[in-house]
Structures are given as structure tokens and as C-alpha cells.
């Protein structure tokens, strides 16, 4: 009887604890940061829609507010606009002292769409269109190329999901994640892919499809961009450290050289925005890899000739 009584008491206590732990209903949210975050996700979805139109219509140009675009080029531009929204929502939440777990989870979901699915689908769409125009339908290489392109895009999306999930867990435990990132951030990885496509479409509009420069970049993209896509995906889930650019280079007192670098970047943007985007995002992606390689080289013990001579002397004495 006593044992049955104890079991009943334990069950009642567990039931009471379960009721206490029941998730409470979300009643209040910060509206403005959430709207900007949703704008990020909406821009990512719009980018996917334009990429799908590009598969059907190709590189047909059209005017938007007096500026010439292609479907692929505008899809890449929307990814960059999503990045701006992604930067603004966090700043708005901190300025209004309304950061919350809801905002963080919503931001990650929208990032997964805008910086995971959208750039991967853009690359797949461009490559699908290029294979249809460059590769003979009866070619034996066509099937493996199509499958490899799909695989590279899928790897990128999966790595983005893993990277964002890991960031959510580690960011709750480490406050230092705001000064540096473990692995390349998903917006930066998406920026590399979007910058390549925007630059490619800019050449199409300015030089034409028959120009040598366009055809050179076209073949370069067809044969290298799937590997670049996989590489960026792996960089996102790597343990390579990347700095937070605003905190590292702009906040606080910095050396005078930083001002010259910033002025040079502004001049490059004025000269050619597409080239500036391509160079800046590519340089950022490569900076983490180069620093990691440099640190590994420095950790290797230096070769000391004196030790070798001592060993040879000991061998002779033996």
C-alpha cells in the first residue's frame, strides 16, 4: 500500500510540474523589428520567384524605374536588399530594448530563406539555363552536370540550416559571438554567390552576350560556381573565425589606415557597384581561410639545423 501511495504522489508531482512547464502563450512582440525581419524573408522569396522566371525567360532584360535588369540580376539584388533588412532588424531591436527569443528565432527562419534557399536556387537556375544553352542535349556530360549542380545547391542549403541552428545554440551561451563569428556568416556566403551573378548580368547588359568578356565569365561560372557553392557551404559550418566587420573595423578608435581603406571602398563602389560587391565579399570569404592557414603555419615547429647536427654527432659516437 505504501509503495502504491508513493507512486501516486510522484505521478501527481510530475503532472503538476508538467503543468507549470507548459509553454505560455506569446502575447506581446516588438512590431517594427519583426516587420523588418519579415521584409528580409519576403525579399528572399521574391528572389526565388525571379530566379524561376529566369529559367523560363532566360536573360531577357527589362526596365525597372529606368534601370535595366535581368531576372537573374534582380534576384541577386534582392538578396543584397535582404541583407540590409537583416542588419536593420537587430539594430532596431537593440535600440528599442526589445530583443527577444521570438525575434531571434524569426530572424533565423528568414535568414534560412533569404541566405540559404534564395542564393542556392539562384545558382541552380542560372546553371540550368546555361546548361540548356551551352551543353548539347545528347551529350554524355549533361546528366552528371545537372545532378552535380543540384547537389551543390542542396549542400549549400543544408549547411546554411546547420550553421544557423548552431549559431542559435552557441549565441545563447557566448556573448562574444557579436564580435566574431565561427564560420562564415550566411549573409556573407550568400553575398559571394549573389555578387557573382550580379556581376555576370551586368556584363551581359553592358557588353552583350557576344563579347569576349561575357563568354569568358560565362564559361568560368559554368565550370567553377558549383565548387564555389559547396566551398561556401563548408565554410559556414567550419570553425574558421570571421570578424564582425562593423565592430572590428568601424567602432571605436582605429588606425589611420582604416580610413584610407574605407575611402578606397567607397571609391570602388562609385566606379562600379557590381565589381565592388564581388571583390569585397570574395575578399571577406578568403580572409578567414588565409588567416586560418597562416595560424597553422606559425604553429608548426621551426626546423633547427643545430638539433640535426647534434643527432648526427650522437650517432657517430654510438
UniProtKB/TrEMBL annotation:
Q: How does it sit in the membrane?
A: Multi-pass membrane protein
Instruction: Please give the superkingdom of this protein's source.
Output: Bacteria
Give its localization. Membrane
Family annotation (InterPro entries): CDP-alcohol_PTase-I, CDP-OH_P_trans, CDP-OH_PTrfase_TM_dom, CDP_ALCOHOL_P_TRANSF_CS
**Which Pfam families does the entry mention?**
CDP-OH_P_transf (PF01066)
Query: GO biological process: what's one of them?
Result: phospholipid biosynthetic process
Keyword Transport in annotation: no
Q: What is its main location?
A: membrane
Q: Which GO terms describe its molecular function?
A: phosphotransferase activity, for other substituted phosphate groups
Q: Where are the transmembrane segments?
A: 28-48, 68-88, 109-127, 147-169, 181-200, 220-237, 258-286
A single GO cellular-component term from the record reads: membrane
Q: Which Gene3D superfamilies match?
A: 1.20.120.1760
Keyword annotations: Lipid biosynthesis, Lipid metabolism, Membrane, Phospholipid biosynthesis, Phospholipid metabolism, Transferase, Transmembrane, Transmembrane helix
Q: Which family does it belong to?
A: Belongs to the CDP-alcohol phosphatidyltransferase class-I family.
Task: Provide the protein name.
Answer: CDP-diacylglycerol-serine O-phosphatidyltransferase
Q: Which species does the entry assign this protein to? A: Limihaloglobus sulfuriphilus
